[in-house]
Amino acid sequence: MTTTTTYADALLALARADERIVVMTAENRAPIRSLPAALGDRFLDTGITEQTMVGMAAGLALRARIPVVHALATFLTMRAFEFIRTDVGIPALPVKLVGTVPGILSEANGPTHQALEDVALMRGIPNMRVFCPADVGDLLAGLAAVIHDPAPWYIRYCDRPAVTAHAPLEIGTAEVFGATEEDDVALVVAGALFRETWDAAALLRDEGLRVRIVNLRTVKPVDTAAILDAARCALAVVTIEDHFEIGGVWSIVAELIARASISTQTMSISCGDRWFTPALLPDALGSAGFTAEAIAARVRTELATLTSF
Amino acid sequence: MKQAERTALESFAHRVRRHVIGMSGGGGCFLGASLSCTDLITYLYRRFLRFDPARPTDPARDIMLLSKGHDVPALYGAFVELGMLDVARLGNHLSPFDHIYWHPNRAIPGIEFHSGSLGHCLSVAMGIAYDVRLRGDDNRVVVLLGDGELNEGSVWEALLVASAYKLDNLVVVVDRNGFQANVMTEDLIPLEPLDAKFEAFGCAATTVDGHDFDDLDRGFGRIPITAGRPSVVIAKTIRGKGVAQLEGRADRWFCRFSDVEVSALLDELEGGAETQIEAEALVVR
After folding, report:
1. What is the pLDDT of residues A170-223, one digit of tens each?
2. pLDDT tens digits for A16-45?
3. Which of A212, A304, B16, B22 is found 20 to 30 A from A195 (Cα to Cα)?
4. How far apart are CA B214 and CA A122, in angstroms?
5. pTM of the predicted model, to two decimals?
6. Contact at 8 Å (CB) between A132 and A191?
7. For residue B200, how many other CB atoms are within 10 A of its CB?
């Protein structure tokens, strides 16, 4: 377990220990406010220029630097998409792309700020790897491994308070909670809805159901074994993500299950094919159907359908 | 510049043009843009860049990025003449068994970064220039842009940042041949007054004749042009320079010539009669 408590502290500690690290931002300083003074010239704010920032990061990486770049997830992954794909993805440069306030964490900003396709876009780039931490503890548990990995990475930033402790990240290995040989349901989650998933599982267990949680952590590379084991051992696999249904966790799970020719019941809890109603987080979670109670209710209904045959 | 130096540069550029024209056979190449910057590339590698062809990854080298990637035949021709690339490999142009295709890529020694999508390499060059400064080194970073490429907003966005960070180890070179892909720049998206635009974005700009080595000497003689500012050298050039049939023509951008036409063009380059070209005039890509 790491002893630092904030992302900025953890990143600073890594940067102090490794001269190669350069912290960059397209004037999105919220998660790294303390770093300019601490890092001096190794902190580089390019202004509101996502494309230029990513291009410069590629140039720095060509010179054996490890750029850790920050911007709002929508603008980073979409405004600069071609720079990421072409200048970072093709040469597989070790640029670390940190997309802030992704998905539901954009709260009341509205659809312009709702990165609900970022996982689909980033995982579609060859060489790119994707880390979707569940909460700040998960983020800090994975940060060092992701930064020191020689590949390009997209980090779907999440600093929500942790509901459970996380072991240090092993890239490509999921965290599995509460697994048995015969689960009623497996909840496969990546990112900010881990908290609601955790609480939904508790509600369902209170009703006597056997519930497994699979926190994917890295969705590329993804823990194929953990997903297929869940598909084999549970009556139903439910994916939970603050992302469009297309291209994210549900797609990943469906692809793996299809490839393995496993027949099982699956259900997606996601944003579907819609932007969510902008609001502060509790209300946004509510209207999107992402509260623990709503998730538990959807799972209960799904299981009832299954067992009625 | 001494006459012997000038003659050597002209001779080098002439040989590069022969390689470029040779690559316009078979599947063809972006001939017009390659010939417009042949003298520029010759000048940069033979006279400006601190670059040892025997040590293309020397940490002390100046770094050159070709942002307008489809003129890579001129760069490969120069690499052959610098002894960095086996001339036989130019015969592999577009072969799936080599890496000599329409845009530059790092599988070829001496290519610092791939390009093809316009408006990328300036910011990549800036990242390199920023690292050079972090290390306290004095490498210069040169990026060659096309004038059509200046349509891309990412170029101007990057210039704002380059100026803000006073990257005076950065040299932007514009191959100002006056053409976009298929039309003249001033007929589509006018760029003039171009030097004033660069100056307004915080750069120090100068304009030279991109086919006159003495004038290139003047333009590149003092870099940075102004301390604390990125330098911009606008090189006025002629698309298709060197062959009358190709010069200054909108429809000679991408060319695919027959073996007979290639031979005739090479003959014309040596002072022979004007080539009769029957190839399709305009191949839009």
Report:
1. 999 999 999 999 999 999 999 999 999 999 999 999 999 999 999 999 999 999
2. 999 999 999 999 999 999 999 999 999 999
3. A304
4. 49
5. 0.97
6. yes
7. 12
Across the interface, whether the CB atoms of A62 and B120 are under 8 A apart is answered: no
Question: Which of A44, A82, A87 comes nearest B124 by C-beta?
Answer: A87
Interface of A with B in 50-109 (CB under 8 A): 51-63, 65, 67, 82-83, 86-87, 90-91
| Phi/psi at B207 (5° precision) | -115, 135
Q: Is B2 exposed, middle or buried (0-12, 13-18, 19+ CB in 10 A)?
A: exposed
The string of pLDDT tens digits covering residues B241-283 is 999 888 998 888 899 999 999 999 999 999 988 888 877 655 5
Q: How buried is residue B48: exposed, middle or buried, by Cβ count under 10 Å (0-12/13-18/19+)?
A: buried
From residue A39, how far is each of A10, A34, A149 by CA, in Å?
13, 9, 22
- Say if the Cβ atoms of B123 and A59 lie within 8 Å: yes
Q: Which long-range contacts (CB under 8 A, 24 or more apart) does A202-208 make?
A: A202/A292, A203/A292, A203/A293, A203/A296, A204/A296, A204/A299, A204/A300, A205/A178, A207/A300
- A25 touches B at CB < 8 Å: no
Whether the Cβ atoms of residue A278 and residue A109 lie closer than 8 Å to each other:
yes
pLDDT tens readout for residues B55-91: 999 999 999 999 999 999 999 999 999 999 999 999 9
Does residue A157 carry a pLDDT above 80? Answer: yes
